[in-house]
Amino acid sequence: MEDLHGVKYFSLKMVNKFVEENENNPKVAKDLMKLIFSEDDNLSMRASWTLQHLSFKKPKVINPLIPDLIKFLKKKNQHTGSIRNVIRIFQEIELPEKYCSEIFDICLKYAKNAGMPHAVRVFSIYVLTKICVMYPELKYEVELILSELKEHPQPPSLVACIRTTTKTLLKLERAAFNTSKKQKH
To answer: Which of 15, 48, 74, 161 has the fewest CB atoms within 10 Å distance of its CB?
Structure first.
């Protein structure tokens, strides 16, 4: 993991090269996870960004790390870039049922937090939506947040996210209505 230490300029090209060279090494994901907890914000962010790109190529590699990723998000005073990257990982991978409740609560907190960067809030809302698809009964909590967000001017990224999420939640509601209607007949 020395590749991430002491690099002055860290680019997507470097991340992709690193992932390509190490994607079949099972130890790499664990090593990156350790670096995410680093006190050095740059190192933590680089490790989380690299792990995010590894998750795009090898999402199954992330599953054993989910408890550590959750632990990271619960830790106070983390760099928002690292938070964004970890939440983006949750958006990309298939979420095991046993972690959905914790991830839902964490993303709810971030989505509501106006002090968070827009990307953290947007990715959090998308993860919440993903969980609502699995558990439609949770959609009312997300709809409440969306209605609160609509009350105030929002940046374009959040406006687009709210619109997309609202459509997805409406489809869930229609599907539930059609299912209950069919069951009555």
So the answer is: 74
